[in-house]
């Protein structure tokens, strides 16, 4: 593993700390201030580069007066930026103050003003004391400005990060946030601005002082609430804009993208992933199950909140089978039958397999009791199943309904005499414990909403869910 060494200059170290995301960075030239000819570093016709810009490389490019360098945003960010173009109607003291007043409504009460280049544009940096979700910050900034009639548009006012459209990251499709140039680069014409919007030098250390001071003054409680509101507003707008199928797809993609945010969400998320893979990817069988598992394990919060990591493969297969029975690819002929599929089928099959293995293991070692309640207890302990489950499958273990066929090559001894206790009625285990294997460590039934979801009326010819409650899959939006 190659270590990303930091610059030896403390100023370079601080710069890399403030702007940490260096994938698909951009570079330009200082020859023409009006046309830097920006290009994405490492990007070719075959795709983006495989490595981010190194910290020392970033600092060297920043110091070079002949070139410009810029960066993008990751999923989390500790700053924002507003770019006011020189020809914008807000490129004035009054316009900048209006923008700053709009930002104060979401808790950003202190900013750092920088002239971006010789062209005269203004960059308004919004330092934050802690990282926040990048998209939520983008939405909060957007709606804070729009509520004050400051509309985002190229050549007027632009916000970084932007409210980007999302690629399907679980399919390795990524949409990057827009990139912005770094401040105060030599030869770029970038300088600090004072509160009167006049040039105030290009000292990088002064920029850092102002940055740290602004961080401490932000109202994060107000900003957190504004980000929640902005995210919700953006979702509502998308729903109004798109048709039913697009809305359904957007909602599924949103759930999949955000992943786990707490415990008890595994079954819901696996259902959403399976539904998306079946309807919008047209997957079936092994491919659908593999899609569900691969997508689930790469979602945010999976390691922290998913309690079923030890059995995620079987859960993925179960939900894939369920989705395949109750959904069909978009614009294809509905394939649902009147059969009702229960997610508990997977658990039943697993229980049967464990009981069979336990019985055969005990029989082969001569440790299978003849007394019914003793036999039941032994099997429950080995199979890690409950007595209630065990008595559903008497034919698998009960002396009156089951027998061991001894292989002559392995055991020539006479079978033991039949015990008088073989006809004992079933007895409940005294401890009444629910035993589980490593595969099901929670030790209690999981309440799964699939049965309710998958018992809708069948026979409908429109929509992935069938009937009047579905979506119009028969036509493309």
Number of helices: 15
CATH topology type of the largest domain? DNA primase, PRIM domain
Radius of gyration: 31 Å
Q: Any idea of the CATH class of the largest domain?
A: Alpha Beta
**Biggest sheet statistics:** 5 strands, antiparallel
Terminal Cα span: 47 Å
| Low-pLDDT stretches | 238-242, 337-341, 405-477
Structural class: alpha+beta
What does this structure look like?
The protein is of the alpha+beta class and 477 residues long. It folds into 3 domains: 213 residues, DNA primase, PRIM domain; 123 residues, no CATH class; 92 residues, no CATH class. It is built from 15 helices and 9 strands. The two termini are 47 Å apart. This is Helix-turn-helix domain of resolvase.
What descriptors fit this protein?
single chain; alpha+beta; DNA primase, PRIM domain; 3 domains; 38% helix; 9% strand
């Amino acid at each position: 593993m190659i270590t990303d060494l930091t610059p030896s200059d403390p100023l370079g170290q601080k710069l890399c700390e403030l702007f940490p995301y260096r994938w698909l960075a951009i570079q330009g030239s200082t020859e023409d201030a009006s046309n830097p000819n920006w290009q994405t570093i490492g990007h070719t016709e075959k795709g983006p580069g495989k490595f981010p810009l190194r910290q020392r490389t970033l600092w060297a490019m920043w110091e070079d007066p002949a070139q410009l360098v810029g960066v993008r945003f990751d999923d989390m960010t500790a700053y924002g930026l507003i770019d006011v173009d020189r020809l914008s109607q807000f490129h004035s003291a009054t316009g900048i103050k209006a923008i700053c007043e709009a930002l104060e409504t979401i808790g950003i009460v202190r900013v750092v003003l920088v002239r971006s280049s010789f062209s005269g544009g203004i960059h308004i940096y919004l330092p934050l004391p802690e990282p926040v979700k990048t998209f939520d910050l983008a939405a909060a900034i957007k709606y804070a400005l729009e509520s004050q009639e400051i509309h985002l548009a190229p050549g007027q006012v632009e916000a970084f990060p932007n409210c980007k459209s999302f690629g399907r990251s679980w399919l390795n499709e990524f949409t990057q946030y827009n990139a912005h140039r770094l401040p105060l680069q030599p030869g770029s014409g970038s300088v600090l601005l004072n509160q009167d919007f006049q040039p105030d030098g290009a000292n990088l250390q002064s920029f850092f002082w102002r940055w740290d001071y602004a961080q401490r003054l932000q109202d994060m409680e107000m900003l957190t609430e504004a980000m929640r509101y902005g995210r919700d507003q953006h979702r509502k707008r998308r729903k109004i804009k798109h048709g039913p199928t697009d809305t359904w797809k957007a909602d599924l993609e949103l759930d999949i993208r955000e992943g786990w945010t707490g415990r008890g969400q595994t079954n819901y998320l696996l259902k959403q992933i399976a539904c998306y893979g079946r309807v919008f990817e047209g997957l079936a069988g092994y491919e659908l199950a593999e899609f569900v598992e691969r997508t689930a394990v790469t979602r945010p919060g999976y390691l922290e909140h998913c309690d079923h990591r030890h059995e995620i493969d079987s859960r993925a297969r179960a939900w894939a089978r369920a989705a395949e029975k109750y959904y069909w690819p978009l614009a294809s002929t509905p394939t649902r039958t009147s059969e009702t599929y229960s997610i508990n089928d997977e658990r039943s099959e697993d229980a049967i397999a464990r009981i069979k293995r336990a019985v055969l293991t005990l029989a082969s070692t001569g440790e299978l009791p003849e007394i019914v309640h003793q036999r039941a207890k032994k099997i429950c302990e080995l199979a890690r199943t409950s007595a209630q489950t065990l008595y559903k499958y008497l034919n698998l273990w009960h002396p009156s309904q089951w027998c061991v066929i001894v292989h002559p090559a392995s055991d020539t001894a006479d079978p033991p005499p039949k015990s008088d206790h073989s006809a004992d009625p079933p007895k409940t285990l005294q401890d009444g414990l629910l035993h589980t294997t490593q595969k099901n460590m929670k030790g209690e039934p999981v309440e799964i909403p699939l049965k309710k979801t998958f018992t809708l009326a069948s026979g409908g010819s429109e929509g992935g869910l069938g009937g009047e409650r579905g979506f119009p899959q028969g036509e493309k939006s």
